């Protein structure tokens, strides 16, 4: 059935230009957030929601992504020989995390085009899309909730976040109607990065989607939009107006989200996650207080 979801698609073909020169030779998705690459948090989220079949949409110079989720025999043997079981376990964990698959996007034609590249792998099933720039705190339920609503309504679901209206132009923004469920809205329209002051609401789409397979046919007919790219937002707007596809609903997320796509927010994400770690927080928190106090 359409809502029995087993597959996750993770677009990871971007150039990461905002993090140059760090991303000149390293994929932005491999930038460490504390001691794990950002992409691992995203794969862990998919697996935590029961999606162990993961397709990553990659591009040139992204081999490090595949290597991270593959075996590294020499490293494993060295750690085993040293008796370093703790680090060996961490290395093996990422290898055994999910059933990983990869396909290249080729031409950088936008998020919609990247999702379309998953058509052959996904087939006629509903599936989840997770963008690597957004890390959702594992203590806050989002993807599982979205899958639940997709099954209940047999519809496509996007994650929404209420943002300051002055920031709405940085996101895809939804026109919404309330439903009988407090954290779920029906989406009647979508616009990608509206001009400042013209957004229809302050409900912004963040990087989690649960999509019915009809999205592929719609994407194939979607012309280039904002920035000359094929926008997933434009295809979802078409789907929202097509009752035969079940429409589009939004789950409003009010939990902890860490944006690793912006340099300042990336630094904040590292600090926020580190201070709550049992192995780092007790030493880091007092140091941060002292450091902040000396800035005055």
From TrEMBL:
One of its GO terms (molecular function) is UTP:glucose-1-phosphate uridylyltransferase activity. It catalyses: alpha-D-glucose 1-phosphate + UTP + H(+) = UDP-alpha-D-glucose + diphosphate. Pfam families: NTP_transferase. It comes from the Bacteria. InterPro entries: GalU_uridylyltTrfase_bac/arc (IPR005771), NTP_transferase_dom (IPR005835), Nucleotide-diphossugar_trans (IPR029044). The keyword Flavoprotein does not apply. Keywords: Nucleotidyltransferase, Transferase. It is an enzyme of class 2 (transferase). The keyword Transferase applies. Its EC number is 2.7.7.9. GO terms for biological process: UDP-alpha-D-glucose metabolic process. Residues 7-273 form the Nucleotidyl transferase domain. Coiled coil: none annotated. Belongs to the UDPGP type 2 family. NCBIfam families: galU. This is UTP--glucose-1-phosphate uridylyltransferase. It comes from Marisediminicola antarctica.
């Amino acid at each position: 059935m359409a809502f029995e979801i087993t597959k996750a698609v993770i677009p990871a073909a971007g150039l990461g230009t905002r993090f140059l020169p760090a991303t000149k030779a390293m994929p932005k998705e491999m930038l460490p957030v504390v001691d794990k690459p950002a992409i691992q948090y995203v794969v862990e989220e998919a697996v935590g929601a029961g999606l162990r079949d993961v397709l990553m949409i990659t591009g040139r110079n992204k081999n490090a992504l595949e290597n991270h989720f593959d075996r590294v025999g020499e490293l494993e043997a060295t750690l085993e020989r040293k008796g370093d079981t703790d680090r060996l376990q961490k290395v093996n964990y990422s290898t055994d995390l999910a059933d990983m698959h990869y396909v290249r996007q080729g031409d950088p034609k936008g998020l919609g085009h990247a999702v379309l590249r998953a058509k052959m792998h996904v087939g006629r099933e509903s599936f989840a899309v997770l963008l690597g720039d957004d890390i959702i705190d594992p203590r806050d339920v989002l993807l599982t909730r979205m899958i639940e609503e997709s099954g209940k309504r047999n519809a496509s679901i996007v994650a929404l976040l209420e943002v300051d209206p002055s920031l709405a132009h940085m996101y895809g923004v939804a026109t919404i109607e309330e439903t009988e469920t407090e954290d779920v809205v029906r989406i009647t329209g979508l616009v990608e990065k509206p001009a400042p002051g013209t957004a229809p609401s302050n409900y912004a789409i963040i990087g989690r989607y649960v999509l019915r397979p009809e999205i592929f046919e719609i994407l194939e007919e979607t012309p280039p939009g904002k920035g000359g790219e094929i926008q997933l937002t434009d295809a979802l707007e078409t789907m929202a107006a097509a009752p035969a596809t079940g429409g589009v609903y939004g789950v409003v997320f009010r939990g902890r989200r860490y944006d690793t796509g912006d340099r300042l927010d990336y630094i904040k994400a590292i600090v926020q996650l580190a201070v709550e770690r049992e192995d780092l927080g007790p030493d880091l928190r007092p140091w941060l207080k002292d450091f902040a106090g000396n800035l005055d």
